[in-house]
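quick one: S-adenosylmethionine bound model?
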Amino acid sequence: MAYKFIDNYRERGARKKLVQKLRERGIEDENVLAAIGKVPRHYFFDETFWVQAYKDIAFPIGDGQTISQPYTVAYQSQLLHIKKGDKVLEIGTGSGYQTCILLELGAKVYTIERQESLYKRTIQVLPYMGYDAEFFCGDGSKGMPENAPFDRIIVTAGAPFVPDLLLKQLKVGGILVIPVGDEKEQKMVTVIRVSETEFDKIVLDTFRFVPLVGDQAW
Ligand code: SAM
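yep, here:
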């Protein structure tokens, strides 16, 4: 394996500072902060760019995609209110960093990425780091009916609307977190399935994601 996985006092110190910064920005969920404090984000970067890994910024990961900003990852993770053992569908694996955070929160994760090159990278890197998820390559905008229902669904790319197919794959009491808007900016939307037929929708802050591309998307 070509990756050098070194996590020493310098990276751990940088991670602590990042956690502090997220706390100051309003992230309150201690489990989420602990997960951010644990996952070595620099492993998702080429060694040349390690100095960027603990800045609160998104960063290119190739194929026109980005590893999400830590604040965004923390914000979405906090909204999910994950309990140990929850079955979570993640749409847009990207680098796999968010996947690791979900796993640290105790979720059983099904993650899908439409770009084969990114999928191939994560199926190598995450198990090597000791993170075990169910990885899929394909269009996640339709969800994953064969593995539904899910306790939680997180979409990590910007959608033009909330796909009905995703709502159908939520358990009653389940939560969907999805950025919805145009190609420039999106509002973070949380949908809670209150009963078989009722859904509560909450519209929150503005973010900028890469587009969700697929059958139920752009
Ligand atoms: N949270 C990820 C991370 O920390 O690395 C970043 C995800 S990136 C902002 C969004 C990802 O969603 C991209 O890798 C993109 O290829 C993927 N994507 C876009 N449309 C998709 C779809 N329909 N199904 C699955 N993945 C999709």
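The mean pLDDT is 95.
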